[in-house]
Amino acid sequence: MTLACCRAAIAAMPAESEVIVVDDGSTDGTCEVLRAEVPEVQIVRLDRNQRFAAAANAGVAVANGAIILLLNSDTRIDREAPAKLLAAFADDAKLGVAGAQLIDSDGTPQWSGGPQPTLLWMVVMVSGIAHALPRRKRTRGGDVGWVSGAAMAFRREAWIDAGPLNETYHFYAQDLELCVRARANGWHVRVIEDAKVVHDGGATLRRARHVAELPHDPSLLWLDLLAWGRAHYGRAWAWSARALMFAAASLRILGRTLRELLLRGEARRSSRSTTRVYAAALRQLFVEREQSPGQGLGREA
Length: 301
Fold this sequence. Notes:
Strand content: 15-25%
Shape: globular
Low-confidence stretches: 290-301
Radius of gyration: 19 Å
C-alpha cells in the first residue's frame, strides 16, 4: 500500500514538491523497498510505532512547503487532486485546512468531512444508521466542521496556529481537533469535492482482525470521540454521551444478532465476526473511564 501511495503521489505532485514518508517503526522491510523503488522519496524513520499523530507530526516537522498534504498509506491520490487543492488555497486566503474527496476504488464517495460532532451526531454514528441518512449540504462553498486526516491539506500558518496533531488519542479524532482549533482561530475548513483520493479505508484493520466490512475500529473510534467530546463540551456532557452511546451500540448489536438468524454459511460467519468487534467496542465503552486520551485538552474553542 505504501509503495502504491508513493507512486501515485510522485506522479501527481508538482515537480518542485517533496514527498516524505514516515516509517512508523515497521519491521517488514518497507524502508528498503521504498529506497529501491522510489529513491526520490525522503524517509523519516521512527524507532518504534508511535501511531498516526506522532508520525504525521514528525513528517510535518521536516517538510518545507507552504501547503502540506497528509496522506494515509492506504490512499492513492488522483493526478488532478494536488492542482485542485492548491487552487482552492489560492482562491481563499483564509482557507486553513482542505480535505480531499475520498472515494472507493469504484468511484463511490466516502464521508470526507462533516459538521462538528454533537451529542445526537455521536448517538447516530454509534447506532449504525448514519449511512442511511441523507448528506447535509455544506455551506459557503463546502465549509465543514472537520475533514478526514486520510487526505488533508493545510497551510503552514494554520498548522502553526492549530497544530500539531494531538498524540494522546488512541487513533482517531486528531483531525477533528485540529480542524476545530483552526476554525476557532478564524480559518476556513473545507472539503474540495473535485480533488479525488482513492481510500481503502480500514485496510489495516481488516488484515489484523479478518473483518471484511469495517472501515474503522469502533473500539478506538468511539473512545476517541468521547474523549474529544469530554475535552470540548465538559464532563457532564461526556457522561450523557457515554450512556446514550452505550444504549445505541447495544441496540445495534441486538439488531445484527437477530438478522444473523436469517443468514447461512459464510455470510453468517462474516457477520458474526463483525458483530464481535462491535461487542468488544461496547465493553470498552463501558469500562473506559475519565483517563481516556484527550482528557483535559483545553485548546478547542
